[in-house]
Amino acid sequence: MDFGIVGQKIRELRKNIGLSQEELSEGICTQAQISKIEKGDVYPYASTLYLISRKLGVDVNYFFDIGMTPRLDYVLEVGRQLKMARRNLDYKEMKSIVTTEEENPLFFNNKRNQQILLWHKGIYQYELDKDLEKAEQTLREAIKLTHTTNKIWTEREIEILLNIGVMYFESGFLEHALANYKEVKTHIEALPHLNDYTIKTRLFYNIARVLTRLLEYQESNEYCKEAIHWCIDKDNMYLLGELHYHIGYNCELQEDRESARKYMQKALTVFELQEDDKYINFINKKIKDFPI
After folding, report:
1. Is residue 200 a contact partner of residue 227, using CB atoms and an 8 Å limit?
2. Structural domains of the chain ordered from first start
3. pLDDT score for 77
4. Is the pTM of this model over 0.85?
5. Given this model, what pLDDT does residue 210 score?
6. Would you say 239 and 197 are in contact if contact means Cβ atoms under 8 Å apart?
7. What pLDDT does residue 292 have?
């Protein structure tokens, strides 16, 4: 473990968010201790590093990776590119990146780095090859790389498990998908702190989608509303428009046109703020089709 690199990164992150050493140390340790950590003179206990990571807004594993992985910036850049490909649904680009990096020692010599590649390999195996069984096997192998029995699941492990549920849903295995999502929910609830708020939002949205397919409209709406409150509480607009639209869609399926129009109008407002023309045009057409 390279203590110096860890200390440097703590200092960089602290300065980036405008904290003094004294402010960072508050409730954790002394200002002098933070100074020594940043200089690489001492290495913090795991519990101290966890508290520091929470205050700096990063996963504690980030620091372990820094201390043990050379050229971490390169690994982070690959991870960023894969995340962009995932969000843009660019599965061919995802496959190209994974294929390029599979033989890179920075990845196959480090389980957490290897997990990134396996995770995205499972995604493109499903999306490009349409092979659910193979994709699920790959994703479960990815989870096993870092997960041990009786250990609290990491956010990444939870995200990978959530991906399996999405694949079940898209393949029409609704009960399997719902069981998967309930397991994900249990793992999220066991976390002392959630760094990526969007994981919970995404989970509740996906649960709502399954429940709608199962004709459980009321329960679906309840999950949507809870997710909306979560978004508002965390000042995060991720899926906020989709959640309002989904409630409207449920109302439409129940022939409650007035409520459907109300929620779709709220969704439209969100999408207009986000300048999402695709959804704006779609919802405008839906609203016009409703009888007044």
Report:
1. yes
2. 3-67 (1.10.260.40)
3. 79
4. no
5. 98
6. no
7. 58
